[in-house]
Hints:
Mean pLDDT: 93
Number of domains: 2
Low-confidence stretches: none
Structural class: alpha+beta
Order of helices and strands: HHEEHEEEEHEE
Largest sheet: 4 strands, antiparallel
Number of strands: 8
CATH topology of the largest domain: Glycoprotein, Type 4 Pilin
Strand content: 25-35%
CATH superfamily of the largest domain: Hypothetical protein ph0010, domain 1
Helix content: 25-40%
Amino acid sequence: MEEGEGWIKLARRSVEVFLSGEGMLATPELVSEELAGQAGVFVCIKRRNGDLRGCVGTVMPVRKNIAEEIIYNAVAAAIEDSRFVPVQLAELDDLVFSVDILSPLELVSSAADLDPKTYGVMVESEDGRRGLLLPDLAGIDHAEQQMVIAMRKAKILLGTPVKYYRFVVERISEKQ
């Protein structure tokens, strides 16, 4: 199995088990080295035509390992993303999963330190509101555009003082 291929299988299986009424998939007793560490993880689910169906994640780890982050975030992407109605078991075969493992956040001083093809961005206001945009998203070509969208997601008005953080991801996607 290629590196990262297990991430996708784990995400898909987690959603399948949950939607079948069996509850949350148990974290495997023995996890591979690539799943044993800790990191923030995003799981995105799209239709085969590329339309987003759900995307949920953690910026920093909240579970004991990457395997658990994938399990919980996959289910959350399927049923808790408030932008969409919950995924149904019958549509699972028509959906494509991707898993992003995030690097630690790095504080940056300006848009010059960002490249939306390479870096994701997180903005944080003084009152703690946060908005995040993953890297290499279709239609996001400029750092300023990336920053504005991240601020909008956090409901932060333009011109409000914010801190900018960047991160890279290791992304594995199923074939569409």
